[in-house]
Amino acid sequence: MITDRISLNVALKYLDQFEQNEGKVVDILFTYRSNVSSVIKTSPVFVDLDVIRAFIENYTPLTLFKDSDCSPLLLFDLRKFTVIKNDTNKNLVYCNGPDFITKSDNINLFSMESFNRDYEKDMIEIRDGFNDVFLHEYILIQLEYITCGYIELHTEISMKNLKKLYNKYKD
User: Fold this and answer.
1) C-alpha to C-alpha distance for 17 and 70, rounded to whole angstroms
2) How far apart are CA 25 and CA 17, in angstroms?
3) What pLDDT digit, counting tens, does each position of 15-26 carry?
4) Do residues 79 and 94 lie in contact, with contact meaning Cβ atoms separated by under 8 Å?
5) pTM
6) In the Cβ-directed half-sphere of 25, how many Cα atoms lie within 13 Å?
7) Cα separations (Å) of 54 from 28, 31, 140, 149?
8) What burial class does residue 129 get, using C-beta atoms within 10 Å of its C-beta: 0-12 exposed, 13-18 middle, 19+ buried?
9) 134 and 35 in contact (C-beta within 8 Å)?
10) Closest CA to 18 of 90, 95, 83
11) Would you tell me how many other CB atoms lie within 10 Å of the CB of residue 141?
């Protein structure tokens, strides 16, 4: 509930700015992965920004950092969204490598450049923090059968860095 909250909050922040400049943002898709698995999964499509806000509040609530070591961490990466503008919903914005692109003439180039610059800058910092939090696991599959707090799962320094990120991006 740490990296999932902050990665979703960052996406919400920049999608909200995009919506204010370009038009209603709908059909938002993320991929996500856990720090205990290399499998990348796709989220359900979020209908609009209000649904993302509700998801964040219900499934990634603000939490005390003391139990953060008790569960796997998730990282959400924005993959695509659609903008309703000029009476059309054919304004798809999608991730193509490191940048988001669109083939729609309705989307302002400045909005795309700002989104790519600002969203990616914050996400690089969050991804680096997430990638540094590796499992300090000397007992295989310990998450399945060891009581939370009995054994430290992550290194202390990586958790300190993650706490800084959480405090910066949690709201």
Assistant:
1) 34
2) 10
3) 999 999 999 999
4) yes
5) 0.87
6) 26
7) 14, 18, 35, 30
8) buried
9) yes
10) 83
11) 9
